[in-house]
């Protein structure tokens, strides 16, 4: 390989990135904007002070104490008190509250007798973040509070703490969440958003660069700069964007994202997969750019790229549950081989050996894209031409 020619192509592409306003907007301004946006949106990691309502039909000190427990939680805020569930339901429709807790009559009396104590909760399913937080907190409170109160009643009557605890024998569930113990929605969502944006930026930037070459009829000049080597021209065109993608990963993880979870424990594995993903996306962008005649055409088509590929990747809907036709179609896109693994390495302390298979798969995907680009260009007898 002629490294001088490769250097010339890489330098030529970097000049296009930093001296062309459109490319500066796509490659520099857009990533910074998205990083700042994510930083602002998810600075607190989790939703706090979610508005809920309380309906206390028991009107006892114990039922009021339960509601104080709920209100003391940083995630919840009892913003309203209503007299009936129907009244609270109407406020959910009006979007004044996200959930409500209903304590029926007999709560205190049944608790003192050690009987089953029903408490009801309802939350709007139109807001996943608020609803899941309110219902999860309700589940924790409903497990902890009855035992505390029942044990207190018996100890006040002279029973030892051990005997009082033994008298309360409900089903004991030990539930543990792996890799996202707080079940923070931002920890679940941010890794996907990071790489969805990175993928879109790389694809749009490379397709724009290639289609501008076609529009200005400079593909021959590019080929000559590469010493008439397809491999050097291809690699020289991709390499600046691969380096840019790796830089954006580092900036996002260590500078912009203000959350402990994003300081990944598995940095080596994360770097290996993110590097392979960046290479695969860049090669994929070079392949699909062949089919676009102009920058306008590429932008029009790529408007519809991110959402379908994200949905097919398995991060929103389980990949194994996709219809077989969509499952086959999903293997066309690099995100299918990377998104779940990238999120896993960001959130969990995973051994680097688990990064090898997805990284190798992505490199094979990149090699296939390179080969297809070469064969199509060879058939058309012109570099990167349709």
TrEMBL record:
Cellular-component GO terms for this entry: plasma membrane
Annotated ABC-2 type transporter transmembrane domain residues: 23-375
Signal peptide positions (record): none
Location in the cell: Cell membrane
Keywords, in A-Z order: Cell membrane, Membrane, Transmembrane, Transmembrane helix
Pfam families: ABC2_membrane_3
First-listed, main subcellular location of the protein, grouped into a coarse class: membrane
One annotated GO molecular function: ABC-type transporter activity
Keyword Cytoplasm among UniProt keywords: no
Membrane disposition: Multi-pass membrane protein
Residues annotated as transmembrane: 23-43, 117-135, 188-212, 232-257, 269-292, 299-317, 354-376
Superkingdom assignment: Bacteria
Protein name: Transporter
